Amino acid sequence: MFVIVRHGNTFSAGEAPRRIGRRTDLPLTAAGHEQARALATHFAARNWQFGKALVSPLLRTCQTADAILSAQSRLITPEPADFLREIDHGPDENQTEDAVIARIGKQALSAWDAHAVAPPDWIVDADNRITAWRNLFAAMLEDPLPTLLVTSNGAARFALLADPALRSGLDHLVTLKLPTGGFGIIRKSATGSLEVPVWGERP
Fold first, then answer.
1. Cα 10 vs. chain centroid, distance in angstroms?
2. Average pLDDT score over the chain
């Protein structure tokens, strides 16, 4: 089983959110740390003992992972994984949503959220990300303990595109986005295929 977590909040209440990616390494806010602790409590309460943790190298994801792993009963050292690093928003990096929409339009953002079609000038590297997720599934699907992956909104969605069974089940998802402090699960179904029983849940 793979538990895919998006980091907690990086903007304070009342602060205009911006498109932050791999070039903007923000820490968690106080609310973001609280979201990370909520995830830790949620997983521990379900007795989910992770066998491995793969984490984006950015500060916000590392802080989220540290909080989750601190609540585990066994010590796990998180491993950096560059394919989990957030995408580069190109000219829209660190810009407000209004500014991004003014440049690319709402339709481009909708295509990104629903189908992972990158807007113009964003640096996504979709093929390599999909290949990395596919290789991960092939290598670790049979592991007895779940794998924790802590990443960002732009990177997480490509997990859903890395397997035919997962792709075929996308119609029931309103969006490919994970909310901040939210998580999804990818696991092997009773028939042996991959399935997504949870996507976008917040504790």
1. 14
2. 95
Domain edges within the chain: 2-201
Torsion sign across C-alpha atoms 103, 105, 106, 109: negative
Q: Which of 2, 6, 28 is nearest to 177 (CA)?
A: 6
Specify the pTM: 0.96
pLDDT digits 0-9 by tens, 130-147: 999 999 999 998 899 999
- Longest alpha-carbon distance in the chain: 48
Are 176 and 167 spatial neighbours (Cβ–Cβ below 8 Å)?
no
Please tell me what DSSP assigns to residue 22.
Answer: T
User: Would you state the pLDDT for residue 171?
Assistant: 81
CATH 3.30.70.1150 fits 2-201, yes or no: no
Q: What is the tens place of the pLDDT at every residue in 150-177?
A: 999 999 999 999 999 999 888 888 899 9
Do 100 and 19 form a contact (C-beta atoms < 8 A)? Answer: yes
Q: What would the 3-class secondary structure string for 62-128 be?
A: HHHHHHHHHCCCCCCCCEECHHHCCCECHHHCCCEHHHHHHHHCHHHHHHHHHHCCCCCCCECCHHH
